Structures
1.
Amino acid sequence: MSRRADYESKTEALLMPIAQRWGVSIYDVEYVKEGSEYYLRAYIDKPEGVTIQDCENVSRALSDELDREDFIPDAYILEVSSPGLGRTLKKDKHLQAALGQQVEIRLFKAVDQCKEFAGILESFDGDQITIAQEQGTRTFRRGETALIRLALDF
């Protein structure tokens, strides 16, 4: 397990009872380096939407637990937020919840001179993602996808 995955896993384990206590679910946890800064991000969700108070409550409790456990030696910035409307669909549980919804897919390399596609998420498995478009269905290998997210429809 990589250092990043280890930090994310341990943080998610600390976050589970906190999320239960505050009535939210854990959407994702990520540990990333952006520029010269490290960020530990916890994304929380709930059916009626996440409030600033939810983020504050979870952030304070998680910060205390992280200080107590102290398993990340690097300086980092802790962020707790909602995954947002155009949420990234990284895990199978995210894709499962998005079946039948409009998604955007961005590829690492162009296919038919295009890197971005949109359609209704029809199905997925460990290797492929299929979307329905007006001109028919289109299947992409998961390894080719740089990003999958819910489409914003305004």
2.
Amino acid sequence: MISYALIGYPLGHTASPFIHRELFALSGREGDYAALEIPPQELPGRIEGLRALGGFNVTIPHKLAIQPLLDRLEESARLCGAVNTVKTDGGELVGYNTDMDGFLHAVPEELLTPGSRVTVLGAGGAATMFAHVLDRRGCRVTLAVARRTLEKAGRLAAGLEHPAQVVLLEQVRGGDLIINATPVGMYPGAEESPLPEGALQGCRAVFDAVYNPAETALLRQARAAGCRTYGGAAMLVWQAAAAHSIWYGAQFDPAEMQALIRRTEEYVGLHFGKGGNLHDRQ
């Protein structure tokens, strides 16, 4: 049986073993999946031992630090500026990022067409990935941030191929899609929303990358405003499935994936519903 793992520190509560074992079962392939806590100072010394695995996922704080320790990076990792999946390929460790795949499966294509007006809340790692994906697809990108993050958002906007607007969170109004790339709304702050009332009027759809809880305050707010809503569990499961495609070429039936997304929401709610942050957004 080939072994796989998630590395990070600290890991605490994690749904990754549950999701990946479910994916092995769906693919009909035997595989073991473990959560390995590796303190940051130990990562360089542990990298050679990780070559014994078939592959592994990477979460905070290693998504940036692991890059120079790998043999090469694929385009997805270079574009996102972070690694969340590593494949052992002929003795080499090759870095990928599957968050793009997860996002594109989680949100309907019609919302991501050239000219679509998309607002990304935040300017961190997740927001960077969303912004670059949207920019490459020709969407009209707006970055919405707190005042303390304006400079960081400006640098992100300047690095895109097409012009992007930067606004404060309280200035958000409407559009085709709003994406929450901040942790606001995740347990233990599940009643918090990153946007004020009224910001969602005229917006077609809202995607919240937070997946604990499955229905965030922002999604409730969006539904009340008449928006279509999409939760983070779909992205979480599909980015994990993309790792299996990289590791051994797995393909998954969309109907089976929808069932797994529902099981994952139930699993997270049952095991971590009151338990704070999860480190599964690889």
3.
Amino acid sequence: MRQPCAYIMASKRNGTIYVGATSDLPSRVWKHRNGFYEGFTKRYGVQKLVWYETHTTMQSAILKEKQIKRWRRKWKMELIQEENPQWRDLYDEISAYAPLSE
């Protein structure tokens, strides 16, 4: 599933959130979940994929990421709530495309 995406990950429902963009969502989420990235997501246990949006170009995905990062936290929470009211971990939807190991 190499597809440009903007995405939001969370530590738990209404918890710490992280907004990102990538051209390979399954691999990126897998790396976040398995501690490959030092920093924010590892430090705060941000491992649940709670929202994502596909784009036709990486430029478009990055623009969406930057737009969402400028939003108030309340707006980000509302976006997640609209699309994923149960705050399910959406990784299962895309994990068939994830790497077996890295």
